[in-house]
Amino acid sequence: TLSKLSSYVYLFGNDVRLLHLHTTGVHFFEYHEKLNELYDILFNFYDALAESAITHDEEIGNPSELILDESIDWETLEGKDFDVEEITYIILEKGKIIMSYIEETTGYESWIQSKIDSFAENLDTCINYMFKQSAK
């Protein structure tokens, strides 16, 4: 559902913000900016998804309680320093999870599917260009 996808997008965005705040190393500024851009993409999409879910009478709960929801399978990050290699690994792995949930979210009106498809393309580009390519 849109509400379930929005939950995962929110949690991913929250993890990205944590990485953004705890980036270390010689590439600090580069990754700090990349993570900020990814964060903006995720939370803009979260907002659009949540609003669309509400129009479909789906429940959008308090995001701060998502981690307590037993139907949500997401391992949150702990606050610590993250270097470029760790950040890249986390973004790529969690990005795959989000992309799989996007693929499972189907059956909505074309304007909603269009939003989902557009976000998926932006996310894929961001992850695979900004993070995967720069890790090489």
Summarize the structure.
By secondary structure, the chain is mostly helical.
Written overview of the protein:
The chain has 136 residues and is mostly helical. It contains four helices and no strands. It has helices spanning 2-21, 28-55, 84-104, 110-133. Helix 1 runs antiparallel to helix 2 (28-55) and helix 3 (84-104) packs antiparallel against helix 4 (110-133). The protein starts with a helix and ends with a helix. The model has no long low-confidence stretch (mean pLDDT 86).
Output mean pLDDT: 86
SSE pattern = HHHH
Number of helices: 4
Helix content: 55-70%
CA-CA gap between termini:
36 Å
Helix-strand makeup class: mainly alpha
Count all strands and give the number: 0
Q: Which runs of at least 5 residues are low in confidence (pLDDT < 50)? A: none
Instruction: Tell the overall outline.
Output: globular
Largest sheet: none
* Rg calc: 15 Å
Strand content: under 5%
